[in-house]
Amino acid sequence: MSLRINHNIASINGQRNLARNDAAVGRSLERLSSGLKINKASDNAAGLVISEQMRAQISGLKQAVDNSETAVSMVQTAEGALDEMNSLLTKMRELALHAANAGTNDVSQVLADQKELDNAIDSITRIATTTQFGTKKLLDGSLAGANNYDTTKVYRFDVGSDLMARADFKGSAATLNITTAGTKTSISGVNWSDWTAYGRDFALAASSDASNLAFFLKGSMSAFAFTAGGSAIGTDNIGETAVGFFSKADNYLAEGASLTVTVAGKDFTFGASESVADILSSINSQQSDYTLGLAGADQECCSIVRNKLGVGGSVGDITMRLTTGVKTSPQAAATTGTGTGSLSIATTCLARGTQAVASLSNVSIGGAATTINLVADTADASILRSAGYGIAIDASNAFAGAIGTTSVNLNKGALFQIGANANQQTAVDIKSVKAFDLGLGGDSRTTGRIENLASLKSRQSLVNGDFKATLQVIDKAIDDVTSMRGQLGAFQANTLETGLNSLRVTSENLTAAESTIRDVDFAAESAEFTKNNILMQASNSMLAQANQQPQGVLSLLGR
C-alpha cells in the first residue's frame, strides 16, 4: 500500500459522495416541504413547460366556469322579468275578452277595461326598459343581434351565435334586399266551357278573371241546394247549372241542405239558412291558411288564395261536400229530391306561387363587406333564413311580395366567454320586449291595422270595439314573449349549463394530469429521503476515516 499526504484521494472521494448525498437530501427536503416534484426549471425542464401550460389552462377553465355561472344568473334575471310580462299579457287577454262581451257591458265598464289595459301596456314597457343585471340593461334591445329595422317590413329578426360569436364579425349597418318578390299560390279552377267534362254534380270553375272562382250545381241539385231572396237559384244560359249563389248575403243554404268545406285539413260544416257571406266569414275567421272571398264585378265568384307567400299548398287543401234534402221553404216552389255533390280540384287548376329571393348585404365579416344569401322557407316565403349564420327573418307579406330594401343594424348580442381560450365564445339574441316591439304582425289586415301592442293604447282598441284585432295582437305578443323565454331557457340549459358540466370535468382531468407531472409522491420521496439521509451519514463517517489515513505516515517516521 502507498501512503501519500499531499493528496488524500480517499478523502476527496468521500467529500464528493458526501456533497452528492447532501444535495439529494436537500432536494428530498425541498420536495417534501413544498409537496412538488418540480420547484425550479432544473428539476425537470420539459415537465415545467408542460405543467405551466396546464396551469394556465386550469386557471382559464376556472374563470370560464365563473363566467358561465354569471351568465346563467343574467339569463335567469331576464327570464324572470319575461315571466312577469306573461302574467300581464294574460291579464290583458282577459280584459279584451271581457270587453268583447258587449251584451252585458256598458260604456263605463269598457272604459275601465281600456284603462287597465293601458296600464298593463305601460308596465310592460317599464319592465323592458328597467330590467338590469348590474348596470347592463337586458330587455331594451341593446343586447339584440339586430335592431333599428322597419317593423312594418320586418316583424322578427333572429341572429344566431353562429354569426354573433365569430371573432371576425363586427357590428355594422346592413341592408336586407328583396331581389325577387314572392307570390301566393292560387287555385284557378277549370274553364267555363269544359267544367261539365269533369262529370261532377258539384263543380268548380274559373270566371273571366282567373283568380276568381264560381261554384256550380249540376242538374236537379240546382233546384233545392240554395235559395236566393226567397226563391230557388235559377239556371244560367247553359240551362243546367246554378250560378251566383255565392253572390249576396241573402243567398243561403236551403232547408235540408248541408255544406262541409275542408280547408288545409280542417272541416267547417254549415246547415240550412246560413248565408253564403256568413259561411265565408266564418271559415276565414277560423283558419289562416287560405282566404275565401267574394270577388268580381257582380260578386258572383269566390276567390281562393293561399295567405302565405311561396310555392306551398295544393289543390287537395280545398275540398267541399254538399248534401241536399227536401226543400220545403214556403217562399219557394216546393221541390222534392235528394242528392250529394263533392268538389275536388284538378292539379291543372293550381297556380303555384313563387319564392322570394333575398340577401343581406354589407355584413362586416373578416374586415370586408359580405353578402349573405337568404333562402325562403318552403312553407312561407316571407320567412327568410341563412342556416350557416343562424339568421331567420320574418318579413311582412307586403315587403317579401315586392322588390325593395330595408336597413338593419347587426350587433354581437349578449356575448359570453365560456371557454379557457380565444374564440371560445357564445352569444344569445335578447330582443327588445317594449310594447312597441311586441305583437308585430298579429293583425293581418292591410288597412286599419293595429301595428303592435302599444297601438292598443294609442288606438283605444277596446273602446272602439276592435276586439278581434286586439286579441290577435295580444296573442302574438304572448307568442313573442314565450318564444324569447324558450330561447333563453334553451340557451341556459343546452349551452351554459351543459358547458359548465363540460368545463368542470375538463378542469378536473387537467388538474389530475398536472398533478401527475408536478406533485410529489410522498411515499416514494420519503423513502428516497431516508436512503439519502443514511448515505449522507455514512459519507460523513467514511470521510472521517479517510481523513485519518494519512496519519499512518507518522509511524514510518518513527514518531
How does this model look, in words?
With 559 residues, this protein is an alpha+beta fold. The protein has a domain at 186-351. Helices cover 38% and strands 23% of the residues. The chain contains 10 helices and 26 strands. It has helices at 9-34, 45-100, 107-130, 161-164, 276-286, 397-400, 455-458, 467-518, 522-548, 553-556, and strands at 132-133, 136-137, 146-147, 154-159, 172-180, 184-187, 202-206, 213-218, 226-228, 231-232, 241-242, 251-253, 258-263, 266-270, 290-295, 301-309, 318-324, 339-343, 350-351, 357-365, 368-376, 383-386, 391-395, 404-410, 414-417, 425-428. It has an 8-stranded antiparallel sheet. A 4-stranded antiparallel sheet has the order 15-16-6-19. It has a 4-stranded antiparallel sheet with strand order 14-13-17-18, with no helix packed on it. Strand 22 and strand 23 form a beta hairpin. Helix 1 runs antiparallel to helix 9 (522-548), helix 2 runs antiparallel to helix 3 (107-130) and helix 2 (45-100) runs antiparallel to helix 8. The chain is elongated. The two termini are 19 Å apart. Residues 190-223, 234-247, 295-301 and 327-338 have low confidence and may be disordered.
